[in-house]
Write a structure and sequence with these properties.
The chain has 401 residues and is an alpha/beta fold. It has 3 domains: 63 residues, Archaeosine Trna-guanine Transglycosylase, Chain: A, domain 4 (Roll), CATH 2.30.130.10; 105 residues, Transcription Regulator spoIIAA, CATH 3.30.750.80; 194 residues, Rossmann fold. A hairpin with a 2-residue loop joins strand 8 and strand 9. Helix 2 crosses helix 4 and helix 9 runs parallel beside helix 10. The radius of gyration is 23 Å and the shape is globular.
Length: 401
């Protein structure tokens, strides 16, 4: 149940010297930093330094290695209904001030909005909530009530069907939290019409984080007259529509999901493009790139937006080899002057490592590639400077000379 202002707080005391990160307002405390104290799953606790100084308030997770996620660094803060109301209001107001389309937007981005483990995306009249940590799970129903008050007329669907919940000792769950009915809804992005299924779709239904990068591809296609584009891991065709709207005469979309490709084909038709300009291919990307190389095929631009290959640093070596292989193959398929949009959403691969991997791929492919721009997620996925872990999406825009 949500806390009231009269709920007594349990205290977690840290080991000597383990408060440095919290003094820099990093929101995580790992299990090895705790000297004593415990609480129930998701319970709000007071966090004290070894000398008894109050450092703030956190949600406690007895299972996770991230034992504490900080709600507030203000010793006087009350973690109550008003606290969550204010945090949600602030997060929504930030997006509104940026001039974003508030009908297709990430409204809350976890730690970057001082609500650790909480993700809220909006698609039309459906708001999708992800509870990724024990503290958010404990206050989930309160968050739903508050969102309904702030956004009248919305329905709320939960997509907490993610593996990271197991690290918090929580089961995966998915379904309506408020309202009901059809889980498919229409949105617009960069002038394109899209259909999002919040139940069956990836993540919360769609990849809102790539909005600005799809616009970049559209503009690049228009400016440079790119004729033939290859969209790898194309999902429901967001980058495909971007290239078509920029004037590409052919955009091939590759994905392993027949369902996603069927939706991509629908999107092509719904936006008035000839299906012949946008063939789809249900196949493994790596194997397909090899076949295309053997055939001598060439493209003016290639998009590589693979799924998460390294969720943690431990998986980074294997993922690095996979990233290098697909980027090497892509480089061999580009015409001189061709463009590569390449991305990693792996938490275990940081930006310098990803750039190093792609540089090695270009070297192995025997091409001279220039880095034109580093890109990332849109402004509704802000990178909080004191929390570098929020930068999960790394992208490079390169041109083959």
């Amino acid at each position: 149940m949500p806390l009231t202002t009269h709920t007594p707080m349990k205290v977690i005391r840290l080991l000597e010297g383990k408060d440095r990160a919290l003094k820099r307002h990093h929101p995580w405390v790992f299990a090895g930093a705790i000297a004593r104290g415990s609480a129930d799953t998701g319970e709000t606790v007071r966090v004290d330094a070894a000398d008894g100084t109050v450092l703030g308030w956190a949600a406690y997770s007895p299972v996770s290695q991230i034992r504490l996620r900080m709600w507030s660094f203000d010793p006087a803060q009350r973690i109550d209904r008003d606290f969550f109301q204010t945090r949600l209001e602030q997060a929504i107001a930030r997006r509104a001030r940026l001039g974003l389309d508030m009908r297709a937007v990430r409204l809350v981005y976890g730690e970057s909005d001082d609500l650790p483990g909480c993700v809220v995306d909006r698609y039309g009249d459906i708001v999708v909530l992800q509870a990724l940590a024990a503290g958010v799970e404990r206050h989930k129903l309160l968050l739903v009530q508050l969102l309904q008050g702030l956004l009248p007329g919305i329905r709320v669907f939960e997509r907490s069907d993610v593996g990271v919940r197991a690290l918090e000792g929580l089961p995966e769950t998915r379904g309506w939290l408020a309202g009901g009915g059809a889980t498919e809804v229409g949105i617009e992005e960069n002038g394109m019409k899209l259909r999002v299924d919040v139940d069956a779709g990836h993540k919360t239904g769609f990849y809102l984080d790539q909005r600005d990068n799809r616009a970049r591809l559209r503009d690049l296609t228009r400016t440079h007259g790119l004729g033939r584009v290859l969209n790898c891991y194309g999902y429901t065709g967001g980058f495909t529509l971007a290239a078509l709207s920029g004037g590409a005469h052919e955009v091939i979309t590759i994905d392993s999901s027949a369902t996603a490709l069927a939706r991509a084909a629908d999107h092509v038709r719904d936006n008035g493009f000839e299906p012949a300009r946008a063939p789809v291919l249900e196949a493994d990307v790596n194997a397909t790139l090899r076949v295309m190389r053997e055939r001598g095929e060439r493209f003016d631009a290639i998009v590589l937006d693979p799924p998460k290959l390294a969720p943690s640093a431990a998986a980074a070596p294997r993922a690095a080899r996979a990233y290098k292989d697909i980027n090497r193959l892509a480089f061999t398929l580009l015409r001189p002057g061709g463009w590569l949009f390449t991305f990693s959403c792996s938490g275990g691969i940081d930006a310098p490592l990803f750039q190093s991997i792609v540089a090695g791929a270009a070297l192995d492919a025997g091409v001279e590639a220039a880095l034109i721009q580093r890109v990332g997620a849109g402004p509704d996925h802000p990178l909080l400077m004191r929390f570098p872990e929020s930068e999960y999406l790394k992208g490079l825009l390169l041109q083959v000379r």
